[in-house]
């Protein structure tokens, strides 16, 4: 009797061992199975989706098999793991284990949008509108309404958003990205203002931002920014008109067709620094840290004038007679490729990465 019980017990143990071995083999096979993909595929994980539901969905789609074992694996080993919503990029060479690794690490697809130095707020809005991965919430709103939605009613939007590349996941709103760029600009401007040179003719950081936007539009040569700032600061201190073309162009708005005339320089607008003294009422472009730094650290010197060479750089002069000679040399004999300001910049093509 004892022998029979012993054999029965051993048989049960053997069956259990075989069953466990078979289960382990099935689990391993399910994890190491390659995803049935002929090309890269984006798996969207929505808020509320569960790993079990995703495994079953992928099995129905034919991307994988044995979802039961994958669900069991997650339940036994990863039940406390947070499943981040977003998009996951699945590649043909991946296994089910690789895919689960993406979920564990939260490596959702990241997109990128770049705000370019020197852009206007109108250009920023166009860039946002052309990205299908961004949820549009401000289409049709005026600039004033956009600023109100951002929580800053009454503020002029020009120059208020920091040029940078911003990463995001699909479905982020345009307002979310604008908030990030607004906050970033506020941070950078405050940091630079705290470290400013002494004796500057600015009442507050906003005036420095206005000056920085003019510098941003005046030169495409980084090493010239401080010298450009020096010229404008000395002009302000002496009560001279700034007489800078980019402010005139900004004030022209849609009337600007690529060139300005003598009549444009005489036509009064709030931004015409040929007819108005001091700084214009608002910035005229989005401003990078380097231009802000230059506005707050102008280079010492005696130059009061500068003229564009036509390649984006400038000739600086201390006297009006020197300046007039430079004007005759570089502006009255313009080359076909002459430029008085930096060439227009296009945003980099939208990108996506796993992160």
Concise summary:
With 355 residues, this protein is mostly helical.
Structure, described:
- The protein is mainly alpha-helical and 355 residues long.
- It has 13 helices and 7 strands.
- Helix content is 45%, strand content 9%.
- A hairpin with a 5-residue loop joins strand 5 and strand 6.
- Helix 1 packs across helix 3.
Which features does this protein show?
355 residues; three-stranded antiparallel sheet; two-stranded antiparallel ribbon
Cα gyration radius (Å): 31 Å
Overall geometry comes to elongated
User: What does the largest sheet look like?
Assistant: 3 strands, antiparallel
- Number of helical elements: 13
Mean pLDDT: 87
Task: Give the helix/strand layout.
Layout: H1 2-32, E1 41-45, H2 51-60, H3 67-77, E2 86-90, H4 96-105, E3 109-114, H5 121-129, H6 143-149, E4 165-168, H7 174-194, H8 205-218, H9 225-238, H10 245-252, H11 262-266, H12 289-296, E5 305-308, E6 314-317, H13 320-330, E7 351-354
Antiparallel strand pairs: 1-2, 3-4, 3-7, 5-6
Helix pairs in contact: 1-3, 2-3, 7-12, 8-9, 8-12, 9-12
């Amino acid at each position: 009797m004892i022998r029979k019980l012993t054999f029965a017990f051993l048989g049960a143990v053997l069956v259990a061992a075989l069953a466990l071995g078979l289960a382990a083999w099935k689990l391993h096979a399910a994890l190491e199975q390659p995803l049935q993909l002929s090309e890269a595929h984006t798996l969207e994980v929505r808020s509320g989706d569960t790993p079990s539901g995703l495994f079953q969905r992928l099995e129905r789609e034919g991307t994988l098999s044995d979802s039961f074992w994958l669900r069991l694996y997650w339940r036994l080993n990863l039940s406390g793991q947070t499943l981040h919503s977003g998009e996951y990029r699945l590649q043909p060479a991946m296994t089910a284990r690789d895919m689960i690794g993406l979920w564990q690490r939260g490596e959702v697809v990241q997109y990128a949008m770049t705000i370019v130095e020197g852009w206007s707020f109108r250009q920023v809005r166009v860039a946002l509108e052309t990205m299908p991965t961004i949820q549009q919430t401000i289409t049709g709103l005026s600039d004033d309404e956009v600023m109100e939605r951002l929580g800053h009613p009454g503020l002029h939007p020009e120059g208020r958003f920091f040029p940078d590349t911003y990463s995001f996941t699909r479905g982020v709103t345009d307002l979310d990205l604008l908030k990030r760029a607004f906050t970033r600009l506020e941070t950078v401007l405050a940091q630079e203002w705290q470290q400013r040179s002494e004796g500057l003719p600015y009442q507050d950081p906003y005036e420095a931002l206005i000056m920085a936007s003019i510098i941003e539009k005046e030169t495409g040569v980084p090493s010239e920014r401080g010298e450009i700032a020096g010229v404008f600061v000395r002009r302000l201190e002496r009560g001279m008109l700034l007489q800078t073309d980019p402010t005139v162009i900004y004030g022209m708005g849609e009337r600007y067709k690529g060139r300005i005339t003598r009549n444009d320089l005489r036509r009064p607008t709030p931004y015409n620094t040929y007819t108005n003294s001091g700084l214009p009422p608002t910035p005229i472009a989005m401003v990078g840290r380097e231009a802000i730094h230059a506005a707050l650290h102008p280079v010492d010197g005696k130059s009061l004038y500068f003229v564009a060479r036509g390649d984006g750089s400038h000739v600086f002069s201390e006297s009006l007679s020197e300046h007039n000679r430079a004007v005759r040399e570089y502006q009255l004999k313009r080359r076909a490729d002459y430029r008085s300001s930096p060439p227009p910049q296009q945003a980099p093509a939208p990108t996506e990465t796993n992160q």
